[in-house]
Amino acid sequence: MRTLLLASALFVGLFCSLAAVPIPVPVPYHAFCKTLWLFAVPCNEISTKVVTQIQAFSPQYRLLSTNPLSIRANHTSLDSPKGENITFALNPTILTAGCCVFAQSTSIGFTSLLDGGLNYCNLYNLLSASGLISTPDFMEMTNEWACLGYGLASCKA
Predict the structure, then answer these.
(1) What is the CATH number of the domain that holds 101?
(2) pLDDT band at 1 (very low <50, low <70, confident <90, very high)
């Protein structure tokens, strides 16, 4: 059963990556984090929770635009006064009636590529505070190559 679940998750991940809305490639010499999240929840629910959480975290997070399949925001803090651009691309999955989310945070100004996990935490803190990491069958896929500083991240919402 576990093998079937893992194979299904990988298949869904592959399928939704083929239908993905492209996310801009990070500019060289800017810290960044790209991650893929799979949910067994419809995209409209994911979008609503993420947008609500961005608004709740104001003024550190600022919502720039939103539509049913994408969300754009900025993040600023004392650690990153120039801030980061945050993008979420939501893609409905056919097999589970769920949602595949491609999320990215990219530093705006020239920064060290080793950001200590700041860009990862920008994404994770929104997800955690909104309760989305507790949804059934939630799965996150990223690594140090796609998300610089991922292994060093110590996220506090």
Answers:
(1) 3.30.310.80
(2) very low
